[in-house]
Amino acid sequence: MSALSQNDLDYIRELIQRHSAIVLDQDKTYLIETRLDPLARQLGLASLQDLMTALRTNLSHDFQHRVVEAITTHETSFFRDAHPFETLKKVILPELIAKRPPGQRLTIWCAACSSGQEPYSVAILVREHFPALAGSRLRIIATDLSDAILARAREGLYSQIEVNRGLPATLLAKYFTQQGLKWRIKSEIRRMVEFQQGNLATVWPSLPQMDLIFIRNVLIYFGVDTKKAILAKVRGVLKSDGYLFLGSSETTLSLDAAFEPVPIGKTLCYQLRPAKIPSH
To answer: What is the pTM of this model?
Structure first.
């Protein structure tokens, strides 16, 4: 039996949608409770019911923000799903490097970056296989809704369980230093990533034109109208020959006809369709 009433769950869903545009389905009750339980303990509250009472009576933005952050921070891991990173290494980065004038900087955006594993994976891949890019010729921007999770990402400190998920032992030894029971990513990799606060569903921060955009395993949380709005904004910042990576269960089909699927090996990514030249 749920620790929260249907009324409580509806209140939480409405709060989440209002603050982040994320739509939580009815089957997400377990997620809500498992994410809020640690927050209740952290706040010194005895139960989820006490947390709900506090939430309904304390209408401060900060308190609501903490609840939203606790629920909307999404799971991530180093080199998640593997195939996109292989495609990046073998096909896309060599292609973009060959296309761009010598010395021109490549710009990569990792949206909804959570605790930083995705942008750091990109940085490690570049450092390993394209060392000439790793300095001034590359800019990696990583954004997330949550200030707390961004602080964690900047710190670059991960548990043994987190580094065991997807990170080869050779890369762990090369790019991390052990600190007690945790592992800190080396400063040479941390310096390659710029972390910024940003909400995909609202006004975006000022962003440069992007060669690569990662918005993986995020669109699934939004309603159709919000998905369409996000993809429309992606069109405005993705270069005409740039690539968009979505999660394996996500697609632009039926959402935005400006994108065409591009299968590369075991990876499906997306590019903007060439603009039609009007006939006279």
So the answer is: 0.82
